[in-house]
């Protein structure tokens, strides 16, 4: 089944598609054609893998979280260390792929949206590496939350454009990036950061992130019993899950339950959203009764997205992947535990996946395994973590 | 074929099609603005439905959407304003301009029930491209509703031919890439593009995105059958928000906008319909 999607129209079952203004259609057609040609070009793919290896430092290792596993007394927890990528998260895998494609298409500028700033940093990084001009759209609210990443992007030579439309977060930054791209498509490539957006973006990002799952399959001695990853738009999860879809492995996606699903302040798109259109794709999204898109809440800027990649919506509907929710506080607890037990400070995003593993491990046998996608490192989150845990860490 | 389109749009080459956002700043102002636009020679009205994430729109219409949403406007409420316009003398076609998500949430059946009950004539969905619109084209046909199609300078010949063949009402030519909003100048290649569209279209061709000055209208008049004016009018409305909100100053505020419109479309030398 997984090999069947998306179809010619960019559909994953009833999800996906291309719901964009006519002005964007040419840009998507051009991209689709160039992407197909690049993916079929061995030299292009060889370049991509070479960059992953020599620039980003891949393959990333898998670490057995022995202390944590012992403490929980159940399944063995393994961590796919995407935090060890250059720039500190899985985002660079995709940014390298798309930047190489931009160069191949003869584009001189890239434009990107960013929430937590990780994708913005990845975009600014590859722009520097491949000699591209880079504009990153970022919500004003996120700029406030992620000062450090804003500075990193500027240091890398990118222009950070503050977005004050709508709710001033990731969805609005994405709107602005799309608007800008459509107006400047002749020389500009839109480097999207997740498995969202109109076809062929969800497919392209999945294919540039599947290296996470491909490597994991090779690195694990036996197939893991469970694979767990966090889901905002869902690119690390899609990249991790995709190579395991045909295997007898339980796949679990973890959404941000924010302050709790029942408080209304969360980003749990699959459990609380309804079918609709966001950023050019049919999927589940958080919206009010009449269809206005609603502001999500999560402590982590990277999961603070009101939609979800259309392939996740499809995998949820077919039942192949189970999706759960982890609250802000649960994620912070998991972050603290991993820091203390294993000496790894995870990104708050990744701590959502870890928290789910901590919940499930005790109910599993000691010879069973859980592979967690540790999508990024927590350095960017220290301010947020200090705000919430400050007192406790002081002890 | 829709009767109001037949009477006011078909076969004409001096089309003035204004766009306003429903509920910007109030429902009553929207009704009065629609009537004024008809008096000034509008051939149809695009009634914009405010949306939280208007991907095709620039800052002017984004702000208007926020104003309208603050008062709780919705697709259904906007459609229910139309009969009030009709009661007060609106005869020209009304085209509902809505993003696809709002339409999906209301549902096809409910939408067309409201179209029939409320004498609505057309639908324009800026984020529903030709490839995704087959089902809606069929249901619009069955309901005598024009589904307005857009073409852009980057639209390939192949798609342009397919779109023109299925288009109803009028064909909406996007003057430039990017979002709605006023522009001082058109790229010279735009006129070649309009020629290309004219040669393929069996229905009137109107140009929109960035039309904001009488000189532009005069120039476009030579190439196509009409203009669609959105942001330029919405900007005028924005400047008169206080006046439009207050009953005592409403007439004065409307007249301000009226004189702008009169000047803008002066190259068309329109005969007024209702005065």
What's the CATH class label of the largest domain in chain A? Alpha Beta
CATH-defined fold name of the largest domain in chain A: Rossmann fold
Report the structural category of chain A. alpha/beta
CATH architecture descriptor name of the largest domain in chain A: 3-Layer(aba) Sandwich
In spatial order, strands of the major sheet of chain A run: 3-4-14-9-10-13
Mean pLDDT rating of chain B = 94
Biggest β-sheet strands, sense, barrel of chain B: 9 strands, parallel
Radius of gyration of chain B: 17 Å
Kindly report the CATH topology of chain B.
TIM Barrel
Shape of chain A: globular
pLDDT averaged over residues of chain A: 95
How many separate helices of chain A?
16
Strand fraction of chain A:
15-25%
Catalytic activity (chain A): (1S,2R)-1-C-(indol-3-yl)glycerol 3-phosphate + L-serine = D-glyceraldehyde 3-phosphate + L-tryptophan + H2O
Modified residues (N6-(pyridoxal phosphate)lysine) (chain A): 91
EC number (chain A): 4.2.1.20
InterPro entries (chain A): Trp_synth_b_CS, Trp_synth_beta, Trp_synth_beta/beta-like, TrpB-like_PALP, TrpB-like_PALP_sf
């Amino acid at each position: 089944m997984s090999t069947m999607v998306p179809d010619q129209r960019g559909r994953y079952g009833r999800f996906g598609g291309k719901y964009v203004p006519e002005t964007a259609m040419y840009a998507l057609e051009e991209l689709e054609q160039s992407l197909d040609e690049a993916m079929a070009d061995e030299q292009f793919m060889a370049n991509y893998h070479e960059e992953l290896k020599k620039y980003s430092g891949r393959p990333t290792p898998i670490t057995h979280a022995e202390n944590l596993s012992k403490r929980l007394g159940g399944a063995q927890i393994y961590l796919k260390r995407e935090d060890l990528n250059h720039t500190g998260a899985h985002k660079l895998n995709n940014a390298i792929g798309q930047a190489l494609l931009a160069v191949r298409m003869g584009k001189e500028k890239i434009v990107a949206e960013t929430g937590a700033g990780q994708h913005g940093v990845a975009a600014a990084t590859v722009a520097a590496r491949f000699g591209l001009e880079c504009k990153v759209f970022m919500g004003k609210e996120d700029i406030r939350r992620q000062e450090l990443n804003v500075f990193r992007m500027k240091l890398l030579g990118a222009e950070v454009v503050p977005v004050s439309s709508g709710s001033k977060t990731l969805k609005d930054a994405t709107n602005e990036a799309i608007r800008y791209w459509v107006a400047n498509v002749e020389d500009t490539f839109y480097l999207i950061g997740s498995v969202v957006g109109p076809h062929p973006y969800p497919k392209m990002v999945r294919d540039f992130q599947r290296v996470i799952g491909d490597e994991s399959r090779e690195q694990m001695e036996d197939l893991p019993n469970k694979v767990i990853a966090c889901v905002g738009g869902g690119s690390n999860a899609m990249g991790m899950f995709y190579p395991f879809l045909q295997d007898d492995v339980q796949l679990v996606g973890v959404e941000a339950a924010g302050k709790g699903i029942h408080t209304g302040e969360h980003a749990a798109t699959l459990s609380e959203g309804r079918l609709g259109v966001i950023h050019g794709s049919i999927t589940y999204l958080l919206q009010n009764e009449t269809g206005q898109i609603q502001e999500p809440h999560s402590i982590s800027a990277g999961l603070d997205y009101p939609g979800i990649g259309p392939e996740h919506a499809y995998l949820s509907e077919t039942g192949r992947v189970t999706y759960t929710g982890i609250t802000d506080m649960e994620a912070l607890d998991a972050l603290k535990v991993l820091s203390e037990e294993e000496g790894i400070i995870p990104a708050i995003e990744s701590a959502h996946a870890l928290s789910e593993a901590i919940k499930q491990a005790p109910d599993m046998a000691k010879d069973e395994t859980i592979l967690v996608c540790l999508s990024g490192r927590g350095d960017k989150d220290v301010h947020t973590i200090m705000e919430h845990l400050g007192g406790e860490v002081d002890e | 074929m829709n009767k109001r389109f037949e009477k006011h749009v078909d076969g004409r080459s001096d089309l003035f099609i204004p766009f306003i956002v429903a509920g910007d700043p109030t429902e009553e102002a929207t009704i009065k603005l629609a009537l004024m636009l008809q008096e000034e020679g509008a051939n149809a009205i695009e009634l914009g439905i405010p949306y939280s994430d208007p991907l095709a729109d620039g800052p002017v219409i984004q702000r208007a959407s926020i104003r309208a949403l603050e008062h709780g406007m919705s697709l259904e409420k906007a459609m229910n304003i139309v009969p009030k316009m009709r009661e007060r003398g609106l005869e020209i076609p009304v085209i509902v301009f809505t993003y696809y998500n709002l339409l999906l949430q209301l549902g096809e059946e409910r939408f067309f029930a409201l179209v029939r009950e409320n004498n609505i004539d057309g639908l324009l969905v800026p984020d529903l491209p030709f490839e995704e619109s087959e089902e809606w084209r069929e249901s619009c046909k069955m309901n005598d509703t024009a589904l307005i199609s857009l073409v852009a300078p980057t639209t390939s010949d192949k798609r342009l031919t397919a779109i023109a063949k299925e288009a109803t009402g009028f064909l909406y030519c996007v003057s430039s890439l990017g979002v709605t909003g006023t522009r001082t100048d058109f790229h010279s290649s735009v006129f070649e593009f309009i020629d290309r569209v004219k040669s393929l279209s069996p229905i009137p061709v109107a140009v929109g995105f960035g039309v904001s000055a009488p000189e532009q209208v005069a120039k476009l008049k030579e190439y196509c059958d009409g203009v669609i004016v959105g942001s330029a009018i919405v900007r005028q409305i924005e400047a008169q928000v206080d006046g439009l909100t207050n009953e005592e100053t409403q007439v004065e505020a409307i007249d301000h906008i009226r004189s702008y419109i009169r000047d803008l479309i002066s190259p068309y030398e329109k005969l007024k319909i209702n005065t």
